[in-house]
């Protein structure tokens, strides 16, 4: 069974469903198509799979015929991004991609304004949302800033390192999700929404083919939500080890320290310096693995418990309720019409 070892906060589902309701869309059908249920929206602790969130966003794009998810001054008809992407794939390098994106969106919509500039050794891609009051939870801000980074990175075939991201709104309660979204420090309450990176990267050539782009667009937006979390060095190494462990439940810090050729004390100190703990990382991997199994209705809960190393389903249920606030059975409850 193929797993993606991270999950997404239900916060983003809640904000998109609020937008769908404001637009009069059938939000129950949206949830059903994403294999989600309305009960989930009442518990802010819950997390879902990238696949579930991608299905929800894709259905919202189609149902509302709006790439801006009903959160902007005017619709951006579904398919506009595809048109921009096909043109961007013919650009020679990263700089021309950013300039093309700015010219394209500034030409076709009055909902956002994109600006690209160079100052010394740094490059800046900035976005202004013309009517931010229509995006009260800043979901469109977050999503578009993510896309402006990840799509160009895909075109050049490698992750574009960011120096910083600036955002115009106050730090949100779900700021912990930003390690999954942006590979850099985030600063809030700034004058603009801006990606900052070293100008030397701008000559990186476009390497993706038209065939690859067609496949990428068919999958979208799943690739934007399945990138690895942007952890610091030792945290990333520990998470990767846990994700690939065949006996996750039995893996200890001693085991990992031995594989890293350091003492357990040194590993603990390194993790503390990066602001995390081994048990927290292990619980998060087990939680996210459980969520991915539970998103597949044909996998029995008893089997999931065994896969995660629990002696009995009841022990798994207790742990899952501690992680998410609900039982596996309630989490998996099928959406009904």
UniProtKB/TrEMBL annotation:
Residues 236-334 form the HTH araC/xylS-type domain. PANTHER family: HTH-TYPE TRANSCRIPTIONAL REGULATOR GADX, HTH-TYPE TRANSCRIPTIONAL REGULATOR VQSM. This is AraC-type DNA-binding protein. GO terms for cellular component: cytosol. It comes from the Bacteria. InterPro entries: AraC-type_N, Homeodomain-like_sf, HTH_AraC, Tscrpt_reg_AraC-type_HTH. One of its GO terms (molecular function) is DNA-binding transcription factor activity. Keywords: DNA-binding, Transcription, Transcription regulation. Transmembrane segments: none annotated. It comes from Pseudoalteromonas denitrificans DSM 6059. The keyword Hydrolase does not apply. Gene3D superfamilies: Homeodomain-like (1.10.10.60).
């Amino acid at each position: 069974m193929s797993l993606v070892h991270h999950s997404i906060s239900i916060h983003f589902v809640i904000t998109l469903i609020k937008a769908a309701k404001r637009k009069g869309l059938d939000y129950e059908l949206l949830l059903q198509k994403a294999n989600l249920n309305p009960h989930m929206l009442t518990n802010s602790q819950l997390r879902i799979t990238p696949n579930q969130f991608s299905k929800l966003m894709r259905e919202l794009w189609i149902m509302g015929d709006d790439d801006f998810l009903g959160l902007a001054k005017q619709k951006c008809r579904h398919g506009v991004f595809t048109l921009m992407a096909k043109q961007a794939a013919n650009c020679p390098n990263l700089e021309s991609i950013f300039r093309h994106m700015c010219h394209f969106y500034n030409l076709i919509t009055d909902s956002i304004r994109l600006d690209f500039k160079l100052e010394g050794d740094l490059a800046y891609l900035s976005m202004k949302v013309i009517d931010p009051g229509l995006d009260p939870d800043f979901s469109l801000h977050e999503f578009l800033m993510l896309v402006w980074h990840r799509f160009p990175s895909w075109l050049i075939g490698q992750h574009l390192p960011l120096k910083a991201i600036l955002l115009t709104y106050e730090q949100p309660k779900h700021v912990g999700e930003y390690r999954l979204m942006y590979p850099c420090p985030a600063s809030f309450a700034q004058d603009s929404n801006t990606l900052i990176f070293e100008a030397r990267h701008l000559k990186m050539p476009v390497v993706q083919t038209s065939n690859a782009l067609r496949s990428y667009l068919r999958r979208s937006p799943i690739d934007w939500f399945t990138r690895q979390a942007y952890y610091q060095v030792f945290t990333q190494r520990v998470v990767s080890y846990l994700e690939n462990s065949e006996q996750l439940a039995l893996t200890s810090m001693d085991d990992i320290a031995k594989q890293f050729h350091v003492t357990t004390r040194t590993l603990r100190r390194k993790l503390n310096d990066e602001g995390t703990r081994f048990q927290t990382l292990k619980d998060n991997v087990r939680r996210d693995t459980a969520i991915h199994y539970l998103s597949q209705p044909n996998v029995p809960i008893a089997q999931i418990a065994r896969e995660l190393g629990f002696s009995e389903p009841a022990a798994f249920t207790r742990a899952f309720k501690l992680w998410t606030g609900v039982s596996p059975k309630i989490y998996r409850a099928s959406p009904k019409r």
